[in-house]
Amino acid sequence: MIDGEIFAQCLLAGVPFPLEHELNMQLRFDCAKSSLLSSDQGDQSNISLPGQPRIPLNCSKRLDQYLFEEHLTTNLDDMASKLWLVSTPRYWHISPLHHQAVRGRKIIPTENPHLHLVWYYDRIFIKPIPRYLLSHAFWEYLTTQPLELRRAATGFVRTYAYLIRYEIDFRLATGDEHHLSLIPKDDGSGGHNGSEKITYERFVKFIASFEDQPDKHVSPRYAYGELRLSRLNVCVRLFLGKLTFHHIDAQWGSYLGRCLAPLLSVFAIVSVALNAMQVELGVQGTFKGSQPQWMFFAYIARWFSCTMLLITAIVASIFFFLTTFMLLHDVWSGVV
């Protein structure tokens, strides 16, 4: 028999959505033990987290470790006060799935929570919604967990209120032809006729409870929407002291090649300016006397040339040391 006080606390648990709107029926919450059980009344010894057969529900330590790894965005939370340099500081700054294609972006599913809604030129990374986050019982379980985990999960699900704005977005997220599988197709109820299909109408009812969740109920990262990876890579070097936020290129040559492109453009412009100065000074040298203004021009040309030589030497040195550091970093990390 469940203690009356414990039962009352369960009823008052801060689950964001009502029970009738849940989209996964595979779990139930034991208030007395603060643990998750399978909705199936049979043997509970070999049950696992829905969608994650490697994570047993009867091992709380492993379950909690998995949830923290899958949902916390520690690096982004640490930089939250600086993320205005990366993105518009609005949590609804998220384009619907169909509009990602309009903007020329390919949607790439990822299980890395740090990469959720991070975009890079022609691609954007999106983390699928796990089955267990659609379960009312799981959210009851989250009320017994640290606040940072509940806020991270709430912020993550809230992003889908803006990714799925129209039925076409829902079809993109669930259709087989796009190979995205961002949203589960069924609720896992397992009745006589099989599990019930998750429809667009059911999903809208579920996600509506998250759409208006205020920023105080989510982790700091989710106060922002889409994040630009190229700027994130710069910010982590400045504020976290890390080499990169996420390394896209498999080889450093591609990364260094992109760095060299703007430098070569600047070098070409400066070379044209120096050649023009050299020609002009050569022409003036053919005259017997030099006017004062041309003496001043000669002084400026000499100063500019020496400055460019110094800058070129500094940039070349930085590039050399950067390349050496990257090589040693890969050696120490066991990459090469």
Plain-language structure description:
α10 packs antiparallel against α11 (292-333). The N and C termini lie far apart (60 Å). The chain has 336 residues and is α/β, with parallel strands linked by helices. Residues 6-12 have low confidence and may be disordered. Helix content is 48%, strand content 8%. The strands form three sheets. The chain has a four-stranded mixed beta sheet with strand order 5-7-6-8. A two-stranded antiparallel ribbon has the order 1-2. A hairpin with a 4-residue loop joins β1 and β2. The chain has eleven helices and eight strands.
Which SSEs are present, and which pair or pack?
Layout: H1 4-11, E1 27-30, E2 35-38, E3 48-49, E4 52-56, H2 60-71, H3 74-78, H4 97-102, E5 106-109, E6 118-120, E7 123-126, H5 136-142, H6 147-163, H7 167-174, H8 200-211, E8 227-228, H9 229-240, H10 252-284, H11 292-333
Parallel strand pairs: 5-7, 6-8
Antiparallel strand pairs: 1-2, 3-4, 6-7
Helix pairs in contact: 6-8, 10-11
Main attributes of the structure:
two-stranded antiparallel ribbon
TL;DR of this structure?
This protein is of the alpha/beta class. It is built from eleven helices and eight strands.
